[in-house]
Structures are given as C-alpha cells and as structure tokens.
Design goal:
3 domains, four-stranded mixed β-sheet, 21 helices, 41% helix, DNA-binding, E2F, cell cycle, WH-like_DNA-bd_sf, RNA polymerase II cis-regulatory region sequence-specific DNA binding
DNA sequence: GCCTCCCGCCATGTC
DNA sequence: GACATGGCGGGAGGC
C-alpha cells in the first residue's frame, strides 16, 4: 500500500502554488505581515531566544531539525495565521475543504458566534496594529489555548485516510501558528492523551485524527471503572464537598511524569466518562487528582491543578468533547464542564467513525435523549438472544408497556442521571430541538444497526461458548454505560445489582424467536419466591400490543411491532431467557449462553467494580507510564517514557 | 474580587 | 553541554 506522507510543508507548498493567482492581495495583507512581524518582535520572549537559541530559522525544509528563528522572519509570508490556516485547509484536499465547510455549517452556535467574534477581533486587531500597535495587542482570547487548538485542528483532517501518514513538526506548527513551541506542547499533550496524535520522533508527531478516539474513550471508560473513578466523581458531584478521605488510588506518585498533562488529561476525561451526569466541576476534578497524587492539598497545589485543568479543558472544548457550563453558587461562579463527546461506545463499533464533532451533542442528546420524551423510559438496554439479564431487585416490580413499539422491562426508580440529563436541549428552541432530535434519531438508527448486528454475532459467539459472558452483557448495549452507572455508581450497588433497568426488544432480524422472562410474582430477599418466577407472554399478544403502539410518540426507527416472538419477562434476579434467537435453542429453559449465575445463587454478571483499591492494584499499570494505554499500545511495556524529555517511541502507535 | 489562563522560568531527562 | 520536554506558578486580563 502506498503511504502518502503529508507534512505541513506539503500543505504549504500547495498553498504556495495557489498563492500567486488568487490570494496575494496587495496592500492589506502585506501590511498585516508587517504588523504581525512587529507584534511578534514585541511579544516573542527574548529569554527563550537567548537561552535556547533554537528559534532562529523559519526554513520549512528542515523538518527534523529544530529550526532557528529569525524574529524578523517569524512570519515568512504576508498572511495572518487565520488566513494561513484557511488556505491550507482549503488547498490540502476536498476532504479538508468539506470538513471546513462542515465546521462552518455545524459548528455549535455558541462556538460559531465566538469564532466569528474572535476572527473579527483578530482582523480588527491587525488593522489596529497598523496604526496603534502599542495599544492594540491581541487580547487574551485571541491568544487562548482553545483558539490555538482550533487552529491546530483545522490543519488536519478529522479522519485521515488510512494510507496517509500525516506528520507534524512541532516547529513548523509553532511557526505557522505564530506561537511558542511551549504552547504547542500543551495542545499536543492533550491530543496525545486521546490518541489523536502520537509522537514519532524528536519534534515530530503523527496525526491520527479522531479515527481512534472512540476506541480510546472506550479504554478510558473501562480503566476509569477499574480505577473506581465512578465512585469518586459521583460521590463528589452529589455531595459537592471535599471530604478528603476517599483516596482512590493506591498507585500514587508525585513524580514529575505522573503530573504530566497527558495523564491529567486522561484522568480528566475518565471522570467525565463515568460521571452520572457527565458533568465534572473543576473543583472536584482538581481535588480528586490531587488526592491521587497524594500531594499535600495545599492551596497552591489546588490552584496549580486547576490551572492545568483549564488548559486541558480548553483543548477538549476545542475538540468538542466537552463544553463549559456555569454553575452559579452563592460564592461566585463554579466552572462545570459537560461531556458532549461520544457516549456508549462499545467494542463492536469502536472503530467506526462517529462524527459528533461538528454537531454538539450534549450528553442528553446522546443515545438516551429520545427516551426523555417519555418519563417512564429513562434507560434502555437492548436485549438480545443469549443476553443475560442483570440482576434486578425483586422488590421493584417490572412493568410491561404495551403502548410502545418496544417491549419494555422496567424495574426500579427513575434514573437520576437520565432524568436530569438534558440541559442543553432545554435551552434550544422547539424547532432546533426537533431538528436535533431528528438528527440524533438518525444517528441512533445507524448506530443501532451496527450494534445490533455485532451484538447478535457476539451473542452467537457467546452461545457457542455455552456460558454467559460478563463482557458480552456489559458491552452489548450501546448505552451500557448509562446502565452501568446506574447500577454501580448511583446506587452504589457494587455488588452489581441494578437499582433500575429497562429492557426493550426491537423487532430485529434474528430476534424473532427471542423470549423473555417476566416476573410471575413477588420475590423474597432478592430471590424468586417460586422456582420459576416467570410467565410466558405469548407472542401474538405482544404483537397485537405492539401493533397498537404509537409510533408518533416513540419512533426510534424500529418496526412498529414485534413479530412472533415469545417473551418471558423476568423479574427478580433472573437473567434467564427462555429461548434464543436460534431455533436450536427453543425450549431450552436455561439461558442461551449457558448456566444462569443465579441458578447457583451467584451474584449478577456485572463483575465490576471491585473496590477501588483492588481495582487499582489490578490495573496498576494504567498510569504507570505517561501516555501508555495497556490496550491501546501493546508495545507500551517495551517503552519507557521519560518525563521531561521523552524517549522516542517510534511506532508505538502501530499497536492499533 | 474572583475566575481564567497566558506566559515563560527553569527543572528534568535525553542525546 | 546542548537541547527537548513540560511542570509550575506569577500575575494580569476578563467578568
């Protein structure tokens, strides 16, 4: 396979070719060049130049050698950085052009307004500088890390072609963006924490884009649960108090590398992923991270941590993974960030690009949003043949909801996290929200299509193994995270018992013979009162019920009725399906995937979490080395990353 | 007055 | 010793 290696230099060459004909506007641009150069002279830190001496050239031909910068040539062409980026993006490829167009079209309104405002300010500032350069320095906003990160991201495609190897020279980027390299480190470190880039050599990174983002987040989510972060963050966010007692990590260190921005970024993201509300306050995050490091919780440590979290948050905001909310308290503002990135990723489609980036999807708008339309449908898990039902407290009756195209199993209370999970949409106009919902539903259908297929395959595999697999039951649902959090985070039911649970069954091909167990009566002590606390719901009954359902209310893209499936709805702790999708399993009273754990009185399938301490011990290596992902970087063990100056880990990304 | 976060010093580690 | 990396906190702009 031919590998195309694109660097910023290539992009600049492309731009140069296009430069002469249409972009070389005389006058104003050259004036801007002069202005910027003058500005650069003023703002370039003299100490950096004198101390390091490596900012002496601007030649782009020396990609792997630290260029020397001539201050007067810091901006080798007449463009503003913004103009540069637009040109580069447009020139590089139709894909990038489309992406830029998409950015413009789908950029969240708030960001768009901000960007326009900032661009105007940028242009204005350049003009001002022509006449009054001493007083018209760029504002802090124009120099913000978030804006810088947006410019950085605009240089590269979200989903680069697999045949392309896009190299990033830190010096080129720094020169192009007219910032110190130090700032680029800040951005790159966060991007690296999410595997958007990986370091390939000194001063060099490889751009991966978002192609690995979902997988990375999946790993982070898993690791977060293993680390017991869900207990930490949910407890904190609920009580909003710093007890300072729940030191979650036995693996602590105050070593320099453990304070790396990369590690901190990963931890920060992990908190979002396991937070019930998918919101994290900087306060909570800072305190949790301070605890982890066993740093003395001095005020200065806290302030430093918050500073870094602001840096990280700005980059994540630019990535449209989080957005800032503002929680007003009596004592001033309280910065809160909400996760708006992908949720509910699971193994099967981890590699599938999910373009959430240009359309801000609040956590509430993620897969669960449609269920908010009905207050009785907070959390949904697709039920598949062979899937074992998680343990459901028997004291909470299950209900069958016939007025929907879905068969629902419900137990327990309304999910708190879900019930409060749609703040962004509340701020939208009706039409906007409708459009958003429609788009979300379309996305849902697509995801569902993928997930169901893979889940069926997974289930069949499970069946062949003849036993229920925790991994299958956990990973099966695109929304399993929400369920998990309800199971383990909110209720604190570490034993894995669900405090509430919904199950639905779409009429998906291959599920026609699916059957469910339904509670046949009360249970005692979490165990069924009768040996088989279930009763069969004849398929025709279900079908007729489904046929009367209102699709207008809940049209999720599923068929309006369930076909001749036989269902047994299960209450109590019984995750037992009476049949499987395969006709081979008809009549098999035991779960399709083998022995029910309840049959032996064992706890439910969901094994995690263990205690934080145990989890930490069990996954100690996760943060052992900065940037190392056990599952993402298989060669990580062979690498030893330093802290200040990392050793070159060329090719470590090939693990993926 | 507090929030936010830019800026750059300088420690650490690699070559 | 030179250089890459990046932790860190002062301090100022912004709200």
């Amino acid at each position: 396979m031919e590998i195309k290696c694109l660097s910023l230099k290539d992009l600049l060459n492309i731009r140069t070719l296009m430069n002469k004909s249409s972009f070389d506007e005389p006058g104003s641009i050259n004036e801007q060049k002069e202005n910027i150069s003058m500005e650069r002279k003023k703002t370039t830190p003299l100490k950096s130049e004198s101390v390091t001496g490596h900012w002496k050239v601007s030649s782009l031909d020396i990609a792997h050698i630290t260029p020397i910068k001539h201050p007067e040539r810091a901006h080798p062409d007449p463009w503003t950085p913004t103009a540069n980026l637009k040109m580069l993006s447009s020139a590089a490829s139709p894909e990038i052009r489309n992406r830029e167009m998409k950015k413009t079209l789908f950029r969240p309104l708030e960001n768009e307004e901000k960007m326009i405002e900032e661009e105007v300010e940028m242009d204005e500032s350049c003009q001002y500088e022509a006449s009054d350069d001493a007083e018209r320095r760029p504002s802090r906003k124009q120099k913000s890390l978030g804006l810088l990160c947006q410019k950085f991201l605009a240089l590269y495609p979200d989903y680069p072609e697999t045949s392309e190897s896009i190299s990033i020279s830190l010096d080129e980027v720094a020169t192009c963006l007219a910032v110190e390299r130090r700032r680029i480190y800040d951005i790159v470190n966060v991007l690296e924490s999410l595997m958007l880039v990986s370091r390939s050599a000194k001063n060099m990174y490889v751009w991966h884009g978002r192609s690995r983002l979902v997988q990375t987040l999946q790993e982070l989510h898993r690791a977060a649960r293993e680390q017991g972060y869900h207990l930490q963050i949910n407890q904190r966010e609920e009580h909003c108090a710093y007890a300072g007692t729940h030191v979650l990590s036995a693996h602590t260190s105050s070593r320099r590398k453990d304070k790396s921005l990369r590690i901190m970024s990963q931890k920060f993201v992990m908190l979002f992923l396991v937070s019930k509300s998918h919101t994290v306050t900087l306060d909570s995050a800072a305190k949790i991270l301070i605890e982890e490091g066993q740093d003395e919780s001095s005020d200065s440590k806290y302030k430093t941590k918050v500073r870094r979290l602001y840096d990280i948050a700005n980059v994540l905001t630019s990535l449209n993974l989080i957005k800032k909310l503002q929680l007003k308290e009596e004592k001033g503002r309280k910065p809160v960030f909400e996760w708006i990135g992908p949720l509910g990723f699971h193994n099967s489609n981890a590699d599938e690009p999910v373009d959430y980036s240009r359309k801000s999807l609040g956590s509430s708008e993620a897969p669960r949003i449609q269920f908010e339309e009905s207050a009785a449908l907070p959390s949904v898990t697709p039920v598949l043949p062979g899937m074992s039902f998680p343990s459901v407290p028997a004291s909470t009756p299950l209900a069958y909801l016939p007025q929907t195209p879905l068969l629902m199993l419900y137990s327990g209370h309304l999910s708190e996290g879900i019930a409060h999970s749609s703040p962004p949409s509340k701020h939208l106009g009706k039409r906007e929200r409708q459009e958003e919902d429609e788009e979300d539903l379309a996305t849902q259908r697509k995801r569902r299509s993928v997930s169901i297929e893979s889940e069926v395959a997974e289930t069949e595999s499970c069946s062949s193994r003849g036993r229920n697999s925790p991994a299958v039951s956990r990973e099966m649902s695109p929304w399993n995270m929400a369920v998990d959090e309800e199971e383990e985070g909110a209720s604190g039911a570490i034993d894995g018992q669900l405090s509430s649970h919904y199950l639905y069954v779409p009429n998906t091909a291959g599920l026609n013979s699916l059957k469910f167990l339904m509670p046949g009566g009360h249970t005692q002590g979490g165990m069924p009162a009768v040996a088989m606390p279930c009763f069969l719901v004849p398929s025709p009954l279900i079908a007729s019920s489904m046929a009367s359902g209102s699709e207008e209310v809940m049209n999720y893209g599923f068929p309006s009725m369930l076909s001749p499936a036989r269902f047994v709805m299960a209450g109590g702790a019984y995750g037992v399906t009476e049949g499987l999708s395969s006709p081979d399993h008809h009549g098999n009273k035991e779960a399709g995937c083998g022995s029910s754990p309840r049959a032996s009185g064992t706890p439910p399938l969901l094994k995690t979490p263990v205690t934080p301490k145990d989890a930490v011990l069990g996954s100690k290596s996760f943060f052992e080395t900065p940037g190392d992902f056990p599952a993402l970087t298989s060669q990580s063990a062979a690498r030893k990353r330093g802290s200040a100056q990392r050793r070159l880990d060329v090719g470590h990304f090939s693990a993926n």
